[in-house]
Specification:
Layout lengths: L1 H27 L6 H7 L2 H41 L6 H6 L6 H14 L10 H20 L3 H33 L4 H64 L1
Helix pairs in contact: 3-7, 3-8, 5-6, 5-8, 6-8, 7-8
């Protein structure tokens, strides 16, 4: 009885070993389809579509990283302005204490410039309205610069899936033409070319999703940064008006 059990155990182990060897052999077989085959067998249109998707992905990631760095600097400048600007003796000293590329310094200098140029024809404008317009223009300029590049993310997020779909449709069309000309419609002749064409759709989605997520994330961070800018502009406006009234009273 023990001898029979031993024989069965040996046979079972042999079967398992053969199955493992067969599985390993299947794993060792190189996949004949994929990106390499898509690039090697694709025509000019397919390769151009793939290159466009790659360039769109590179552009979107570049914008995401650069805008994140820019927004982080703006938030740092806002903290510096909050800590240093309002403790200065006057607006000129406060502006000189800010970084040269700080948007808050830009707004402060525009406010000072408007207060000093309220002469001639501009003198016919109410001082309050003139300073308000000047500071608002400066804040709009800052907002415009902070929105640079977001249009790229919006464009990539909205068009990349369609570019990938175009590549898929074009690839399936060429695959069906080749299959029709060869007269062979077996699964191995159909699955490979069609599967390679569907890779284009997957690439298009992989390019679009990070662009859309990055766009929404950066827009939200822009709103937070612009809240700091608008608060600074409103406070600066009040300070300039107070300084003007004080100067008029001293006269």
């Amino acid at each position: 009885m023990s001898k029979q059990m031993f024989t069965r155990s040996v046979a079972l182990l042999s079967t398992l070993a053969l199955s493992a060897s067969a599985f390993a052999a299947e794993e060792a077989i190189e996949n004949p389809y994929g990106l390499s085959a898509l690039w090697a067998q694709g025509d000019v249109v397919a390769k151009a579509t793939l290159l466009i998707l790659v360039l769109m992905s590179m552009a979107s990631w570049y914008v995401i990283f650069t805008k994140f760095s820019e927004q982080a600097r703006v938030m740092r400048y806002a903290q510096t302005a909050q800590n240093n600007f309002w403790n200065a003796g006057n607006v000129r000293q406060g502006a000189d204490g800010l970084e040269a590329d700080s948007p808050f310094r830009f707004i402060a200098e525009k406010g000072l410039e408007s207060a000093g140029k309220h002469t001639g024809l501009l003198g016919n404008i109410n001082f309050n309205d003139w300073v308000t317009m000047s500071i608002q223009r400066a804040m709009n300029n800052v907002q415009s610069r902070m929105q640079d590049g977001l249009a790229v993310l919006a464009t990539v997020g909205s068009t990349a899936p369609f570019v990938g779909l175009f590549g898929t449709v074009w690839g399936i069309y060429n695959a069906l033409v080749k299959i029709g000309m060869s007269g062979q419609a077996s699964i191995d002749k159909v699955a490979g070319p069609v599967g390679e064409s569907l890779i284009m759709t997957a690439i298009g989605l992989a390019v679009a999703v990070p662009a859309v997520l990055g766009y929404n994330w950066l827009v939200r961070r822009n709103k937070v940064a612009m809240e700091e800018v608008h608060a600074f502009g409103a406070d600066l406006h009040a300070v300039l008006l107070g300084a003007a009234e004080s100067g008029a009273a001293n006269k």
